[in-house]
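Sample entry was shown:
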Amino acid sequence: MSRSSLSSKRYTYIHESGSETRRGAIDIHRVIINRSRSTGYARLMGLAFFLVILGASMYFFLEKDNPVRTLSWSCLLSGFFVLIQSRKLVKKESVIIMPTFGIQLETQYLSGKTVSRFIPLGKILKPVLVECVTPVTCYWSLSLFLRGEEQLTLVFKELHPSLKMLVPIWKALCTVIGTDQSEVTTEEKHVVSG
């Protein structure tokens, strides 16, 4: 099994493939977030400190039975817990290419939960690299045109890896699906090489 990797400040890209002599081997592309355990521990301690301060301030502010104050603090506390629970912290996202069957998209969260989606090869029309522009940022995304669906399917739903990490995955998908890779414009070639 051959293995190659590429790193940036935010992400690490790992490519694992079967032996080159075996046609039809599984091809795995992983994008992992670079986080140290110390930052996760510091965030957890900061959250615990905030909850202790919040609890102590509620005790001092709620010394008399005031319904308006009680309602406002309960709404604030409820909103804070909803915000914490709704936040999904992603550990890594993977693209597993099985040449005769299809591709599997996996997202693994820090909590240990893994969400997988399998897309059969016959349903994929073409993989495309798309530049996404928002009012705040600009990033590249790898998407799939699927037969019978109106919208593009994002390969990486939570992470935004750099173009240098997306191009090898895009090339592997083009090779498996049988689409022409020469459709990359000269501008995209310049961005990838520079």
Summary: The mean pLDDT is 77. The longest strand covers residues 124-133. The helical segments are 37-61, 67-86, 163-177, 186-193. The CA atoms of residues 1 and 18 lie 5 Å apart.
